[in-house]
Amino acid sequence: MKDPVTYHPGVGPARDDAGASASSVLEARSSRRAFIKGVIASGAVAGSGVFTFGCSPDQPAASSIERLISLHVNGQVRRVDVLPNETLAMTLRYKLGLTGTKLACDRGECGACTVVIDGSSTYSCSTLTHMVGDRQVRTIEGLEGPNGELHPVQQAMIDELGPQCGFCTPGQIMSAVALLEANPNPTRDEARHAMSGNLCRCGAYDHYLNSVMRAAQGV
Ligand code: FES
Ligand code: FES
Q1: What does the pLDDT look like over 67-117, one tens digit per residue?
Q2: Rounded distance, CA 61 to CA 68, Å?
């Protein structure tokens, strides 16, 4: 059996010789310590390389370089600097000031960030802005009529007392708008299905559904 004091894995053959000199034991311990320090140091360098590789204070990483693009939002062309990994929700809210689009889960689960892109309801938190291209983006702000009047879906939401806290409401409205523009006379089940990607923590689902059915008569 190997002597637990003098056995040093990784630093040469096992030391079974009970007669090993004190200096050889110390030498082995010191080698082991140096080996472990080396492993830790190389791990630290490799880890830091993840963040610093290819960068210098004067040369930002490619992922942090914004590029100027044109976005078609609510009937206007908006010029905006966008990071490669930036989501449409971030661009709309924090670059273009369109804060009607809400951010909640930020991972495609709740629908608070829903906008309409080329007629389809879309989670803007899960859409890279650079992927939008020339498609037409509509947000809740874009529903306003020329004289400030509400969109029929918005009016129906008020008439049916749809919102409670209201946080999910812009997303609910944009999903309803996309539905009614594609299918102006949905059945209640079709409307329920179209709205199923929009969660409401207040549980106002029936009110929202009533609103969609009411709006369907006026859109
Ligand atoms: S914030 Fe986009 S789906 Fe929840
Ligand atoms: S009205 Fe409050 S989360 Fe829907």
Answers
A1: 999 999 999 999 999 999 999 999 999 999 999 999 999 999 999 999 999
A2: 17
What one-letter code names the amino acid at 19? G
CB atoms within 10 A of CB 214: 18
Q: What is the pLDDT of residue 64?
A: 82
69 lines ligand 1 (CB under 6 A): no
Which ligand has the minimum distance to the alpha carbon of residue 110? 1
What domains sit in the chain, N to C, each tagged with a CATH number? Answer: 1-53 (no CATH), 66-216 (3.10.20.30)
Distance 205 CA to ligand 2 centre (A): 9
- Residue nearest ligand 1's atom 3 by CA: 108
Residue 59 CA, chain-centre distance (Å), reads: 26
Ligand 1 close to Cβ of residue 108 (< 6 A): yes
- Cβ of 83 closer than 6 Å to ligand 1, yes or no, is no
Taking the model in full, what pTM does it have? 0.73
pLDDT tens by residue, 2-38: 343 333 333 333 344 444 444 444 455 555 555 445 4
Q: Could you report the per-residue pLDDT of 33-71, keeping only the tens digit for each?
A: 554 454 444 433 333 333 333 345 566 666 689 999 999
